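User: quick one
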Amino acid sequence: MTHYLDHAATTPMLPAAVEAFVESSGRVGNASSLHTAGRAARKTVEESRERIAAALGCRPSEVVFTSGGTEADNLAVKGTWGARRDADPGRTRIVAGGIEHHAVLDPVEFLVERRGAAVSWLEPDRCGHIGVDDLRAVLDAHADEAAVVSVMWANNEVGTVQPVAELAAVAHEYGVPFHTDAIQAVPHLPVRFDASGADLMAVTAHKVGGPVGVGALVARRDAALVPQLHGGGQERQVRSGTLDVAGIHAFAVALDETVAVRDVEAKRVLDLRDRLVEGALGLDLGITVSGCWTAGDGAERLPGNAHLLVPGCEGDSLLYLLDAAGVECSTGSACQAGVPQPSHVLLAMGYSETEARGALRLTLGHTSTDADVDAALAALPGVVERARRAGGFG
Amino acid sequence: MRVVAAMSGGVDSAVAASRMLDAGHEVVGVHLALSRSAATLRESARGCCTLEDAGDARRVADRLGIPFYVWDLAARFERDVVDDFVAEYAAGRTPNPCLRCNEKIKFAGLLDKALALGFDAVATGHYAQVVEGPAGRELHRAVDPAKDQSYVLGVLDADQLARSFFPLGDSLKSQVREEAAARGFAVAKKPDSHDICFIPDGDTRGFLARRLGERPGDLVDAVSGEVVGAHAGTHGFTVGQRRGLGVDRSRLDGEPRYVVEVDAPRNRVVIGTADLLGVDLVEGAHLRWCGPAPTGEVAVGAQVRAHGAEVPATARVDGDAVQVRLAERVRGVAPGQSVVLYDGTRVVGSATITGTGRAG
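Assistant: Done. Structure below.
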């Protein structure tokens, strides 16, 4: 019996989404074709677009389908930066959160290293929050240079939720477009694009019970974007590639179902998460929670996120031992050739490299149960004891 | 037993892991990440831990249906193997990094971590045999003389040996490749690795020059004591080396010259004719015994480099040093290499060579 506690990595597909995927996969039709089969495929895509738009609080025309979250973030950052610089060569500065996902961080670094962009990083406080005043200060200092602001809605590692609406409002005061990566937020937070004030928002299907390989960039109609994939121009002339009808269909079904029960589900997952965290803190193993912990908090930290720091342990040892005990989780940080690197998020929050190495991310989702929490809590004492013994041998 | 199979991504460790599984052990595959250098990760076809090698190892583990993890021992490898390698060359010696890696990484860092995590032993694809003897486990030469790696395992002590499996020791390399093919491993035809893994382009001199810089000095004739050329750093030279000496030939007769001594403290490289290369006295320190330490003077076979021949010898242990008297003169014995002592096929132990000389 395995216990899957890695929903932030990907969450099991919902049965209705699998059904939709299989159904649409079995039908021929390129959504760009003009004959009957093509029109049927187009109908599926557009109905899905409408459902997704309704679920995200945007207009259907604002949904640009992509191959997933990474492509959506790349298009938002590189596409906006390119368009802004083209319109005004002096606007080359990117303002981005220091704890963004690599899908944002790496495009920013690419633009800085290879395309002459400048960057201002917004570093988080010790709780992992990006300050609205910090953004204002940066934009004050670089009012004429700023091309785009990018701050994620909720962090994928430590789960902190950012004040997106306030940040977007400040960016707009200075006339700078605001992008947010909402990939981790959509499953459990009341994400609405229109109310957020953001100009661009990245989402993906496989975090809400849809398939891997499809996502969207929600982009206001007036958002200027330089295409990153050139070709048939299928999506608003901004994104090319034959539309993934089955993936888009399943995405819409999964998102619909997720949003319909989101408030109730968030509360259920929050209670499980609290029991997991309080249980881990009570094990007398020196475990702490990264950042600032408040039981019952599902607004400042994602309801499904339990991010633990286990002193004296290496994340890879913890991971192996928990895996062997049937508990599947993550260190939360990016891997290089399978080796967990110290998390840039924890380092930005002020933790040392040694502290960051003992990070363990357990994330809950729609299939999580009390049994999963019990299994993790039962495994932790033995796992931590062994991992500590192995700690000095890295 | 619960066993960690060290999986490099090559054919040998793949078959070794399979055989441990067949023998009924609970096997977990572990690939060691030994370099954080992105260049090494991407450029080398056969390096310490290229992405391709890690991927190959993972695919073998998938096929065997065993769990697979990558363990990061890069910092320790850098310190205990690479830095040691550079420091040894800087001191005028010629180290063997594979031997040091076995001593400090595979059967220390990896083994210790495995034991701490609840494993009983480590299995590798080395060609050597472990035999249960009257005084505990013994390390013996492999059946395949062309692949025998007992030399680079001569640093293992009895405790390490007790926790180690070498499932390939009774096989020929050709059999191992056939077995890999029969098992459907994609790595069955993958070429053997030969170079030092952290110098994938094979340019050791260039690697050392980047680490140590240029330290120009004199090239000196062993007999006359005359300066006959210049060198860019003693770390570019090894005893017995003939190529790349940069000798001013007009100042010498027609005889080929070899490095006979690397004198790092005086920043000199001493060269001479072939007849000066042969030595029959070898002194060693940093003793490692693969079982009980010998006492007094013992008759042994001595091997002074990785692929060298074994020479009859007598060894006398004196505290933490050993004197080995070879029955015949051997050329190109470099301080820093190891002398591994054998009793028949059994590895008695090893020492790092500190000096050489002639008995008569």
